[in-house]
Amino acid sequence: MKFSFLLVLIACFSIGSAFAADEAPDCSNNEEFMKMNYTRDQGEICIKEWQSKVNELKAKLDAATAATQKSEAELTRITNAVADCNKDLYRLIGATDADVNAFKERLGRLEANIREMKALSDDILADRQDKVKMLEDEWNQLKQIKISILPEFYNRVVQAGRDIKGLYRQKKTKEYIVQTWAKERDCLWTISGKQEIYADPFQWPKIWQANTDQIRNPDIIHPGQRLLIPPAGEKTSEEMKAERSYWRKKRAAMNANQDQAAMTPAETPAATATAPKSGK
User: Fold this and answer.
1) Confidence of residue 273 (pLDDT cuts 50, 70, 90)
2) At 227, phi and psi to the nearest 5?
């Protein structure tokens, strides 16, 4: 349609140029003259219609511009009103812009950590319950801050709490009955190394920490004990902490035994107390 309108416009321009030329049209031929008059009239009509459309579009543009300016003014008014409202809210809870920005960043980091944990499988998540607890502790701290009740944060804080509760998983455990040392050479190290358990003897602290109600000293277990076997995976922070404590005590005991063995019989407290006194 635009192309046809352009052709008509070009025709109108050509007709106008012909009339403006020095040579006057031949009016002796009545049919040709009428034809030219008809074409000229059509050209004038086209120009008038085009001008009318231009004027109509210009009016619409002016109206749209006025509406845009009005909307921008209203948006500015609302933005300023919201800013004033926020300032009043900040004053009520005793917070500054810096406090609000710091809270926003802290909440954003918590939400990012929650999204990362939600992407894990249930088995991996079950082994990272200590990290879930850390997220819950952070959430509890955030919700105690008055800034959390501000409209821009309230729903986000509530949702974060719901998401964290959804991250808790019960560890899937199985049971192992301790056999005799003579038959199976059972100790936490060898049990952990069994293919049906972890196939990794270094995972023994997991068994120990899952059975502290039965095992006081991880070097001593008894035939017939029913031990819970947690799912395989990385050691938790509590398991690693217990393992380090075990090795520290082990080294201290070994050093004490070496020092005891290095003392001469006359120097030991027992030897000194029972040694006969010379000259009697």
Assistant:
1) very low
2) -100, 135
* Same domain, yes or no: 208 and 250: yes
| 225: containing domain | 174-261
Closest alpha carbon to 149 in 162, 158, 161:
158
> Is residue 182 in some structural domain?
yes
Evaluate if pTM is beyond 0.70: no
Same domain, 42 and 110: no
Q: For residue 262, what pLDDT band results from cuts at 50, 70 and 90?
A: low
Name the nearest CA neighbour of 16 among 50, 45, 35, 44: 44
- Kindly state whether residues 178 and 137 are assigned to the same domain: no
3-class DSSP state of 21: coil
Residue 207 burial (C-beta neighbours within 10 Å; 0-12, 13-18, 19+): buried
Last residue of a domain, one of 165, 190, 217: 165
Give the separation between CA 96 and CA 138, rounded to whole angstroms: 21
User: Any bridge partners for residue 175, and if so which?
Assistant: 228
Domain count, the chain: 3
